[in-house]
Write a structure and sequence with these properties.
Blueprint: E1 3-8, E2 18-22, H1 32-41, H2 43-55, E3 69-73, E4 81-85, H3 97-114, E5 119-122, H4 134-148, E6 157-162, H5 165-178
Parallel strand pairs: 1-6, 2-4, 2-5, 5-6
Antiparallel strand pairs: 3-4
Helix pairs in contact: 3-4, 4-5
Amino acid sequence: MPQLEVIQGDITAQRVDAIVNAANSSLMGGGGVDGAIHRAAGPSLLEECRKTAAARRNVPGGPCPTGDAVITGAGKLPAKHVIHTVGPVWHGGGHGEPELLASCYRKSLLLAEENKLGSIAFPNVSTGIFGYPKDKAAAIAVAAVKETISKTPGIKRVVFVCFDQENLGLYQKLLSAAST
Ligand code: AR6
C-alpha cells in the first residue's frame, strides 16, 4: 500500500515524478492551478501541450475530454512530468460529475503507472473555478485513489496538495479515518 499524504502548499513546488494539473479540454492553459503550473514551468510546457492537443484534435470532446488525462514533460518545474486532467464543471451533481471526477484520479494514476512513475501529487481537481463542492470532491478523490492503487504497484507515494485550509481539513479527516 503506497503512502497517501496530505499537505497544504503550492503544487508547483513539489519534487515528485508527476504533478497533476486541473486543466481544461483545450490543454491551452487557464487560471487557477493551471495558470500557476504554466507560469512556473515556462513556455516549453505550453509548446508541448500545443503538440499534444494537435495530435489529439480528433478526439471527441477533446483534445482532452472531461475525466481523461494526458502526460507531458514539466519544463522548469522540479517535478519530472505534468499529468493534465480535466475535471467536471459542477452542475448540481446529477450530470455524471462524481463519475467524471473519480475518472480524473483513476486515469491519472494509471497513466503514471504506464510511464513507470513512482510518485504523484494531486491538486483538489474541480474545486476552484469549476465549482465542485469541496467536501464531496475530497471524498471522491480519496475513494478513487484508494480503489485504483491496488492496480498501480509502481506508485509508492501519492500526495494530495491542498491550497486552502478547508480542503486541508477535509483531506486530513478522510485520510485519518481511512487509516484506522
Ligand atoms: N497549488 C495547488 N493548488 C492550487 C494552486 C497551486 N498553486 N492554485 C490553485 N489551487 P482550479 P478547477 C487549487 O480553479 O476547479 C483553469 O482555468 C484551488 O484552490 O485551479 O478544476 C483550467 O484551465 C482549488 O482548490 O481548477 C480550467 O479551465 C484547486 O486548485 C479550470 O480552471 C482547483 O482549482 C479548472 O477548474
